[in-house]
């Protein structure tokens, strides 16, 4: 059974949070499952991780989840929108920071006929202080309805890099074009200076790029839909697809699944989040579908 169906059919019910939100236990994770007239979605409390989002009038998820995703404590989930914080990348351990592998707290749920809003928070604990010696407060706000808005707020005295590492569902990666990325990028797969990216981007091999001058809106142009990705207070946009060999090497990705997603990530890499004690900062993304 596809994993999203398994989540929706899971009878391991913990509690009813509101009319459109139920909490369930799915393997080792506690999930909030959202079933609203305008959309279906789920969020894991580990990582404040949006697992998928599908507006009701869409035939397939816009925010995509791997069918082989692992729901084990302390392991990153493949798909959805992982929160990479307080560092992006794998030069430090754990890769992409610890925010995606620790439990957050659900603070607030509100719903009306426009959708569901959920707020989750994370503060330093003995565990996080072992990874990173700073006190901090984080909040993730989700507004899920006809559009999907995700915003990370940070408070503390530190400098951090971060990404909302969104996975988007596509019909066939070979048919997809991405627009709005700008011309300048760092190619993480090559040490040679890359050529300028002229016009739009298409895919015929592995891609791992940090676009450093992106426009505020990226578009994923697919056969039957265009996904509009509006970035707020961001500095960079990362585009990633592992292609054939890397997908085969990842146990949480089915061999052919690289064809059905692309990551377009809203990032703070070259302008890190820099805070002094009385300050707070936020950045985010709003996703919608155009026909
Ligand atoms: O496997 P993960 O730790 O989730 O990282 C998946 C990918 O994330 C980003 O897109 C990075 O730019 C890639 O280099 C990395 O492979």
Short description:
With 291 residues, the protein is mostly beta strands.
CATH-defined architecture: Distorted Sandwich
Query: Stretches where pLDDT falls below 50 for ≥5 residues?
Result: none
CATH topology-level fold name: Beta-galactosidase, Chain A, domain 5
Query: Could you tell me the radius of gyration in angstroms?
Result: 18 Å
Overall pLDDT metric: 96
The helix-and-strand class reads: mainly beta
The ligands found in this model are:
6-O-phosphono-alpha-D-glucopyranose
How helical, in percent, are the residues? under 10%
Ends apart, CA distance between termini? 29 Å
CATH class: Mainly Beta
Tally of individual helices = 3
- N-to-C SSE series? HEEEEEEEEHEEEEEEEEEEHEE
Tell me what portion of residues adopts beta-strand conformation. Answer: over 45%
**Main sheet summary:** 8 strands, antiparallel
**What's the structural domain tally?**
1
Q: Any idea what the shape is?
A: globular
How many β-strands, per DSSP?
A: 20
Strand order of the largest sheet: 7-8-9-10-20-17-16-13
EC number: 5.1.3.15
Catalytic activity: alpha-D-glucose 6-phosphate = beta-D-glucose 6-phosphate
Family: Belongs to the glucose-6-phosphate 1-epimerase family.
Organism: Frischella japonica
């Amino acid at each position: 059974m596809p994993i999203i169906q398994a989540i929706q059919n899971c009878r391991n019910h913990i509690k009813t949070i509101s009319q459109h939100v139920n909490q369930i236990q799915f393997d080792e994770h506690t999930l909030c499952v959202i079933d609203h007239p305008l959309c279906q979605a789920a969020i894991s409390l580990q990582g404040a991780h949006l697992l998928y989002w599908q507006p009701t009038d869409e035939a397939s998820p816009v925010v995509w989840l791997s069918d082989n995703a692992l729901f084990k404590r302390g392991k990153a989930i493949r798909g959805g929108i992982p929160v990479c914080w307080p560092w992006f990348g794998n030069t430090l351990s754990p890769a992409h920071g610890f925010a995606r592998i620790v439990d957050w707290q659900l603070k607030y749920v509100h719903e009306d006929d426009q959708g569901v809003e959920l707020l989750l928070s994370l503060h330093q604990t003995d565990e996080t202080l072992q990874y990173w010696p700073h006190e901090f407060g984080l909040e993730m706000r989700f507004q899920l309805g006809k559009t999907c808005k995700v915003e990370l707020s940070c408070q503390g005295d530190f400098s951090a890099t971060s990404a909302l590492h969104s996975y988007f569902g596509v019909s066939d990666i070979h048919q997809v074009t991405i627009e709005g990325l700008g011309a300048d990028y760092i190619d993480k797969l090559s040490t040679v200076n890359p050529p300028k990216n002229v016009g739009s981007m298409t895919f015929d091999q592995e891609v791992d790029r940090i676009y450093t001058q992106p426009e505020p809106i990226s578009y994923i142009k697919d056969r039957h839909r265009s996904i509009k990705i509006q970035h707020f207070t961001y500095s960079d946009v990362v585009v990633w697809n592992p292609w054939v060999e890397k997908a085969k090497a990842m146990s949480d990705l089915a061999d052919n699944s690289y064809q059905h997603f692309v990551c377009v990530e809203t990032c703070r890499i070259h302008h890190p989040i820099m805070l002094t004690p009385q300050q707070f900062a936020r950045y985010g993304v709003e996703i919608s579908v155009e026909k």
